[in-house]
C-alpha cells in the first residue's frame, strides 16, 4: 500500500490524505451505530459516508492520515461506541489518493441502506434483541413537562423493540412495522439531528404521529355472533370486529386508566406488549387469581409477577446483587427468586420460589403510573398454543378469559415470550470451567459482584434472541436444526471462514397442537427469509413420530439436502460441550438426565451416560429400565411410576404370584402364617411391614387396590407399558413417596414439589446465617449422606457400542440400580410416628424423621445427594476429566450444585448449560453443531 501526497491541483492538503473502506459486522444495526459513526466523523474531520447493508455497516472515510487512524480506532472503543453495539469483525482497506482523482467527499453523510444481499453473510449481521426502556427515555416518560410524558411507545437508539418489529435486513424504518407511521416535524427534526439521541432512531414517534393504545371491554367483543377459535375464523370476522369496536374504544391515557380501574375491581385484563400479549391481574387478589386459573385451566403452574421497581420487588422476594443486575438489565428476564410471601397464595400455590420481573416496555410504566401494586403477568394464550400477538386473534381467542383488552396499532411481527432465568447459589467454585462462548456482550455485567455466583436459563427468548452463539471451531456446512418437540427452539448454523456461528430462535413452545406446529413452520420460514439462509443439511430428533422430525425429513427431500438424525440425549450433551467452547478433539463424560427422549433401542431414555467427542458419543451407562404403565398416562401420574418401581423391587416369582393371588388370600386360601413367607422383598430387606401387599402399594401410590391389580396385569403383559430409563420419572416416584398424590397439572410439577421440599428442609437444618443450597466445602456430601444404590457393570446392554470399530476401546456398560434407594425411602416412610424403637442409637435417623413433613424433606435432600453421588461414581469409572451435564433434571439447583461440588473436589472439570437452557430448549444447539461437523 503506497501513500502519496496530492498536489494543490488536485485540491489536496499538505498532510497525507488517505481513504479507507471499513466493513463492520456484528450487532451494528438498530443500536445507533450510524449516528455514532457520524459524530465520530465530525469529531475527527472525516469526510465520506456510512450505510447499512446486508453484511452490517459500510463506511467510506477520507481525511488526514492521523485523524483517519484515530477515527478507525474509535469505532470499537468501549468507552465511545453505543452501549448496545457489539462489533464481531472489522475489515479495513486503505486506498491512497491517485493523480487522476479529482473528487473529494465534501461532507460526511448517512446514506440509504444498500440491500444487495450476500446470502449467508447476513448471519454475521446481528439485529439486536428487544431492549428494555433506557434510563433517559424513562425520565422523559415520567416527566410531566416532556412532550412524551406517558407516551407508551417512547424509544431511542439505545432502547426499544428491534427483533419483533423488523421485517427484513438491513434495519431501516421502512423495513419495520413502523413503516406506516409518518414522523411529525418535531420527530423528523430529532431524527435528522446528529446531536440528538434519536438521530436515525427508526421507531421514533410521539403522540402526534406514532402508534396509539386503545381499550375495549370483552362484553363489547361478545356482541359478535358466530365466535370461532380458528385462524380462518379470525380472518373472516376481522371486519365484523372492526365495526363493533369502532365506537367502543377508549384511547390514550383514558384507555390505561380504564384498564387500571378494571384491575382494581378484580378483573383480568389482556395487554399487548412487545413480543405478544400478557394476561394481567392484581397479584394480591385471591379471587382474581382463582378466576384466572379457572378460565385459563391452569390449576397450579406458577405465575410470574411484574413489580413496578426493584424496591417493590425486594418486599416480596429475596434479591441479591446478581438478581438485581438481572432484573434491571436491558434484557429484563423473569428471575426465579426465593419468595418472601405477602402476595396471593394463587401466585405460586405455595412454592418457595417466585417469578419476578420488572417493566420493560414504556406501556408497562404507564400502567404503573396509575397503579401501585404488583401484577401477575402471564403469557396470553389458550393452553398448548403459542402466545397471541395480533389484536383480532386476541379478541377471538381470549375474550372468555380476559374482561378487557389494552391493544395498540404497532404490529408485532414475531412472537417472543419472556425469558426465564434461575439464579444459583453463591459458591466457592465456578460451576463451569469455560466462559460460555457468545456471551461477551455481557461479560462485565456482574464484575462488581462475587464472580462465582451464577445463573442459568430456563427459557431463552425476549431480550436475548437473536444474539448468536460463536463457536471456537468452524463448521463444514450451513445447518438448520429443527430442535425438540417440546419447548421447541430451532437453530441456524453458519459455516464461517474462521469459526461457526449459531442463531437460536425464540421459544416456540410445544408442537403438540396444530397452532404450535404451524407457528414452528412459520418461524422457520421467517428466519430463512430474514437471514437469506440456505441450509445444506437439516438435523432432527431420532423420534420417528415427532411432527417436526417428519417435517424435517420432507424438508430435506424437498430441498435436496442432507437429512441427519441425532438421538435426543446426545444432542443435550453436545449442546453443553458447544456452549462451553470445548474443542472438537476433547473427550467428555456426558450425563443427560431428563423426562423423555427416544433411544437407539426404541425405548424411552432419560437417565443416560455417554463418553466420547462431539461426533462419537457412546452410551456407556443408564438407569435400570422400568415400565411406564399406561404409557403417556404414567408421565402425568407419579403414582403409576411408583407402583411400577414397587413391582420391580420384587425379587422372586413367588412374590409376584402373591400379588396376583391376593384375592385368594383374602378369600381364606392363605393364612397369615404361611402368607408371611411371601412378603415383597427388595434385594436387601423387607420393604413392607404388613402382608397386605395391595393395601401397602395402594397407600403409597394413592391408587385403589383394584387399580394396582390392573396395573400389575398391564405390566406383566406389556400392555401399553413401554420401557424407560428416565431420571425425570424417578423424581416423580420419589415425589409420590414424599406426599405428592394425583396427576401433575404441568410439566415438572412433581420435580418442583420435590425441590421445594429439599430447599425447605435445607433452610431449616442449616446453621444460622448459612445460605440454603449454597456450595461450600463444608457441604461436601459423602456416602453416609446418601441412600444405598448399586452400579453394575457388564458389556451386554449396549447395542450402540457393538457397532463401533473393532480397534476402538470397549467400555463396560453399567446400569444404575436404584431399587435399594427405594427400599431405604419406603423404610423411612413406614416408620411409625411414635417412639417405639427398641434400639434408640441404632435407629437415630429413624427417630429424627418422625415428623411427616420433616421426613419428606429429609428424603428429598438425601435423594438429591444420592443422585450426585451416582454421578461421581460413574465419572470416576469413566476415566475422563471433562464432565458435561445437561437435560431438564439439571434445572434442579440442589442437584446441580452438589454434583458440581463433589466432582470439582475430585479433580473433574465441570460443565453445565448456563446461557442456553439445559432443558429441551437447548437441543437445537447440539443438533446444529453435530450437523455441521460430521
TrEMBL record:
E.C. number(s) listed in UniProt: 3.6.1.7
- Tell me what reaction this enzyme catalyses: an acyl phosphate + H2O = a carboxylate + phosphate + H(+)
Q: Does the keyword Hydrolase apply?
A: yes
Please give the InterPro entries that the UniProt record associates with this protein: Acylphosphatase-like_dom (IPR001792), Acylphosphatase-like_dom_sf (IPR036046), Acylphosphatase_CS (IPR017968), Carbamoyltrans_HypF-like (IPR051060), DHBP_synth_RibB-like_a/b_dom (IPR017945), HypF_C (IPR041440), HypF_C_2 (IPR055128), Sua5-like_dom (IPR006070)
A GO molecular function assigned to this protein is: carboxyl- or carbamoyltransferase activity
Work out whether the entry's keyword set contains Hydrolase.
yes
Q: What is this protein called?
A: acylphosphatase
Amino acid at each position: 500500500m503506497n501513500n502519496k501526497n496530492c498536489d494543490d491541483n488536485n485540491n489536496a492538503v499538505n498532510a497525507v490524505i488517505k481513504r479507507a473502506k471499513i466493513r463492520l459486522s456484528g450487532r451494528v444495526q438498530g443500536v445507533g451505530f450510524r449516528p455514532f459513526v457520524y459524530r465520530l466523523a465530525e469529531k475527527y474531520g472525516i469526510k465520506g459516508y456510512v450505510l447499512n447493508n446486508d453484511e452490517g455497516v459500510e463506511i467510506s472515510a477520507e481525511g488526514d492520515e492521523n485523524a483517519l487512524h484515530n477515527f478507525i480506532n474509535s469505532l470499537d472503543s468501549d468507552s465511545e461506541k453505543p452501549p448496545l453495539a457489539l462489533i464481531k469483525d472489522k475489515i479495513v482497506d486503505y486506498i491512497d489518493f491517485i493523480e487522476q482523482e479529482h473528487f473529494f467527499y465534501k461532507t460526511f453523510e448517512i446514506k440509504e441502506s444498500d440491500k444487495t444481499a450476500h446470502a449467508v453473510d447476513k448471519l454475521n449481521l446481528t439485529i439486536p434483541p428487544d431492549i428494555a426502556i433506557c434510563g433517559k427515555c424513562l425520565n422523559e416518560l415520567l416527566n410531566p413537562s416532556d412532550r412524551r410524558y406517558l407516551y407508551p411507545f417512547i424509544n431511542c437508539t439505545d432502547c426499544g423493540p428491534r427483533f419483533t418489529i423488523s421485517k427484513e435486513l438491513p434495519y431501516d424504518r421502512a423495513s419495520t412495522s413502523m413503516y406506516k407511521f409518518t414522523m411529525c416535524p418535531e420527530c423528523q427534526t430529532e431524527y435528522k439531528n446528529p446531536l440528538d439521541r434519536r438521530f436515525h432512531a427508526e421507531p421514533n414517534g410521539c403522540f402526534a404521529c406514532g402508534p396509539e393504545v386503545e381499550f375495549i371491554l370483552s362484553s363489547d367483543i361478545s356482541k359478535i355472533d358466530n365466535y370461532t377459535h380458528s385462524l380462518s375464523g379470525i380472518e373472516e370476522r376481522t371486519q365484523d370486529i372492526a365495526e363493533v369496536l369502532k365506537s367502543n374504544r377508549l384511547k390514550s391515557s383514558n384507555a390505561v386508566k380504564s384498564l387500571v380501574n378494571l384491575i382494581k375491581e378484580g378483573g383480568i385484563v389482556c395487554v399487548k406488549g412487545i413480543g405478544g400479549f400478557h394476561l394481567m391481574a392484581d397479584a394480591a387478589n385471591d379471587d382474581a387469581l382463582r378466576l384466572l386459573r379457572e378460565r385459563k385451566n391452569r390449576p397450579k403452574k406458577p405465575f410470574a409477577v411484574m413489580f413496578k421497581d426493584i424496591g417493590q420487588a425486594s418486599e416480596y422476594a429475596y434479591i441479591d446483587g446478581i438478581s438485581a443486575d438481572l432484573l434491571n438489565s436491558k434484557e429484563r428476564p423473569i428471575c426465579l427468586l426465593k419468595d418472601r410471601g405477602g402476595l396471593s397464595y394463587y401466585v405460586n400455590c405455595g412454592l418457595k420460589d417466585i417469578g419476578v420481573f420488572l417493566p420493560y416496555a414504556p406501556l408497562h410504566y404507564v400502567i404503573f403510573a396509575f397503579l401501585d401494586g404488583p401484577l401477575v403477568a402471564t403469557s396470553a394464550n389458550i393452553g398448548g398454543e403459542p402466545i397471541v400477538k395480533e389484536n383480532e386473534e386476541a379478541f377471538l381467542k381470549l375474550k372468555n378469559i380476559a374482561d378487557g383488552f389494552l391493544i395498540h396499532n404497532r404490529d408485532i411481527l414475531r412472537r417472543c415470550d419472556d425469558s426465564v432465568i434461575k439464579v444459583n447459589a453463591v459458591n466457592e467454585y465456578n460451576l463451569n470451567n469455560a466462559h460460555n462462548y457468545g456471551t461477551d456482550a455481557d461479560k462485565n455485567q456482574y464484575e462488581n459482584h462475587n464472580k462465582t455466583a451464577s445463573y442459568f436459563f430456563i427459557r431463552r427468548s425476549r431480550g436475548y434472541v437473536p444474539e448468536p452463539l460463536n463457536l471456537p471451531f468452524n463448521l463444514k456446512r450451513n445447518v438448520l436444526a429443527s430442535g425438540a418437540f417440546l419447548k421447541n427452539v430451532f437453530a441456524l448454523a453458519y459455516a464461517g471462514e474462521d469459526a461457526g456461528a449459531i442463531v437460536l430462535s425464540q421459544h416456540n413452545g410445544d408442537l403438540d397442537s396444530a397452532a404450535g406446529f404451524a407457528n414452528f413452520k412459520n418461524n422457520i420460514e421467517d428466519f430463512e427469509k430474514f437471514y437469506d439462509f440456505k441450509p445444506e443439511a437439516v438435523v432432527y430428533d431420532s423420534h420417528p413420530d415427532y411432527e417436526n422430525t417428519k417435517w424435517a425429513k420432507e424438508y430435506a427431500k424437498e430441498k435436496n439436502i442432507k437429512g441427519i438424525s441425532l438421538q435426543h440425549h446426545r444432542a443435550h450433551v453436545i449442546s453443553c460441550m458447544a456452549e462451553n467452547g470445548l474443542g472438537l478433539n476433547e473427550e467428555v463424560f456426558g450425563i443427560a438426565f431428563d423426562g423423555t427422549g427416544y433411544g437407539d433401542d426404541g425405548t424411552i431414555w432419560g437417565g443416560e451416560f455417554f463418553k466420547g467427542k462431539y461426533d462419537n458419543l457412546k452410551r456407556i451407562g443408564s438407569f435400570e429400565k422400568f415400565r411406564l404403565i399406561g404409557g403417556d398416562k404414567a408421565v402425568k401420574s407419579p403414582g403409576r411410576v411408583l407402583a411400577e418401581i414397587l413391582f420391580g423391587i420384587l425379587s422372586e416369582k413367588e412374590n409376584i404370584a402373591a400379588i396376583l393371588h391376593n384375592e385368594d388370600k383374602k378369600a381364606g386360601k392363605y393364612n397369615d402364617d404361611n402368607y408371611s413367607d411371601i412378603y415383597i422383598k427388595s434385594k436387601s430387606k423387607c420393604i413392607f411391614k404388613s402382608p397386605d401387599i395391595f393395601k401397602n402399594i395402594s397407600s403409597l401410590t394413592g391408587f385403589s387396590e383394584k387399580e394396582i391389580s390392573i396395573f400389575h396385569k398391564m405390566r406383566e403383559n406389556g400392555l401399553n407399558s413401554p420401557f424407560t430409563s428416565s431420571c425425570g420419572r424417578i423424581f416423580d416416584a420419589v415425589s409420590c413417596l414424599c406426599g405428592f398424590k394425583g396427576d401433575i397439572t404441568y410439566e415438572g410439577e412433581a420435580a418442583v414439589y420435590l425441590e421445594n421440599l429439599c430447599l425447605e428442609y435445607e433452610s431449616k437444618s442449616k446453621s444460622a446465617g448459612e445460605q440454603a443450597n449454597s456450595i461450600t466445602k463444608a457441604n461436601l456430601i459423602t456416602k453416609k449422606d446418601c441412600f444405598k444404590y448399586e452400579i453394575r457393570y457388564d458389556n451386554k446392554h449396549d447395542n450402540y457400542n457393538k457397532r463401533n470399530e473393532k480397534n476402538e476401546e470397549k467400555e463396560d456398560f453399567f446400569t444404575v440400580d436404584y431399587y435399594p434407594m427405594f427400599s431405604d425411602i419406603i423404610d423411612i416412610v413406614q416408620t411409625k410416628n411414635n417412639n417405639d424403637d427398641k434400639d434408640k442409637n441404632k435407629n437415630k435417623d429413624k427417630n429424627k424423621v418422625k415428623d411427616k413433613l420433616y421426613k419428606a424433606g429429609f428424603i428429598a435432600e438425601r435423594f438429591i445427594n444420592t443422585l450426585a453421588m451416582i454421578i461421581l461414581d460413574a465419572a470416576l469409572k469413566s476415566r475422563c476429566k471433562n464432565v458435561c451435564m445437561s437435560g431438564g433434571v439439571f434445572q434442579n439447583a440442589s442437584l446441580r450444585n452438589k454434583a458440581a461440588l463433589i466432582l470439582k473436589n475430585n479433580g473433574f472439570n465441570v460443565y453445565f448449560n448456563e446461557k442456553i437452557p439445559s432443558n429441551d430448549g437447548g437441543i437445537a444447539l447440539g443438533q446444529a453443531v453435530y450437523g455441521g461437523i460430521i
